[in-house]
Structures are given as structure tokens and as C-alpha cells.
């Protein structure tokens, strides 16, 4: 499906924000539809082709090492039920899809300056882009400051996505990332996965491996058809879903994407139980509550 980029307006003399080739930042991913607040901490080193992102205060640690093996590798250290033993999972890069360091901020190429706005007491530049694919129209905004001037690395404060479905004529998707403690340095030893583990492949289904190994990728991407959206096809096939109309299909896909994000975020908490995608994953929350 072709993706269309909609320009906002010509910017002034401001340059597109750049966060530098090395940084450390903390943040919180917010999913209002499921009342999820997921803290993370990220380290990024572009020059050495590596990054690390920890979720829920280090419960799940993800290392993306672009120089490892032939085409890079992702290593994830996490507790596994029923014993909550700590295990290592590995996803190898390929020639077609090599592993690269994962930024905690969006790629701002294509963003344009929209306005100045205050965010939590800081006067920020707001950068915006709009993408469209099919009935999906997503608006992305990024709030940044420039403590040391226009040519120095910018400091991120907030990233927000609001989705609109043109067929349903409604806003149907929203999430945000609040950033804090940004600095343009990073300790070298944080990029080394802990020793003593024998890493195994991520558990089935294989089509979920990418989002399990690199969860933040879907949130900072500005592609309106996310990996979560692409998982709707296998879900429909597995549960033999056939919807009566295109509108119903759009509604069910929205429900599924939100359920999918909730399931994966909940399973990163390191709780005494896990949740999974079942035959009600395309239900609305109201339908689910009525069933229970």
C-alpha cells in the first residue's frame, strides 16, 4: 500500500532537529485506550552501530548490535514464566534486513516546523508530519528545545501520534512518548549484553519476532501501516474472520491493533502471568467488558 506524505507548511530558517550520534534518554510510552504507562530508558551510539532500550525499569533489556555476527543481532534479556527465570533471546539480522541501532526518537526527515508551544514549562518548537495509507491518516508531532542553538543537538520533550480513519470519519488511535533526562553522552559498557547466557530464538509465532525483539520501533515509526497493523492478517486467518463490510473491517482492525499493543506491553512488565492474543482481540473494550 502506497504511503503519502502531506506537507504542513514551509518552515522558516530552522533546521530539522538532530539528536546527535550518541545519547541517553528516559521516557514513558502512553497508550490511553488501555491506560498503559510504560517507562523505558534508552542508550544510542550511532558511530559504533549499537543501541539498548530497557523497558519497565530494566525488567526487559534489549540490545541491538549492528556489528555482531554477519548482519547484526538483537539480544533480549527477560524473565520467563512459570519460574520467572531470566533468559536470553536472539534475533539475527539478514542481508536484506540487517540489524541497526534503534533510536528512541522518530526519524524527523519529512517533518516541518509548525509552531512554538509550551510543554511542561518549556517553550518548544513543534515539528509535524502527516502520513496517509488507505483509510489511515496519521498526524505526528514532536516537541523539542535547542538549549545550545540551532546547530547543536536538540532535546526531545514529547512525541505524539493521532490517527484518523477517513472511512469511519473518526479519530481512532492515539499514543504518546514523554521524554526526560536527555544527554548527549552514553556509558560504553551499557551496550554489552550480560555474560553467561545461551541465547535461543524468540518463541513462535515467527511473524511476531520483530515486534517482540524491537518494541519501540512501531511507536517511533511514521508509517501509518505499523507492524501491529500487519499482524491483523495472520489473526484473521487463524480465527477465520470474515467481516460484513469494509467499515466493520476498519473498526475490527483498530480494536486488534490496540489489543496487540496492550498484550505486548503487559508481557514486558514481568508479572506472575502473561496475556495473549485470543479470538476476542478484535473486540472493543465495551464488548469485552460485556462478555466478562
From TrEMBL:
Residues 232-288 form the Cathepsin propeptide inhibitor domain. It comes from the Eukaryota. InterPro entries: Papain-like_cys_pep_sf, Prot_inhib_I29. Pfam families: Inhibitor_I29. Gene3D superfamilies: 1.10.287.2250. SMART domains: Inhibitor_I29 (SM00848). This is Counting factor associated protein D-like isoform X1. It comes from Danio rerio.
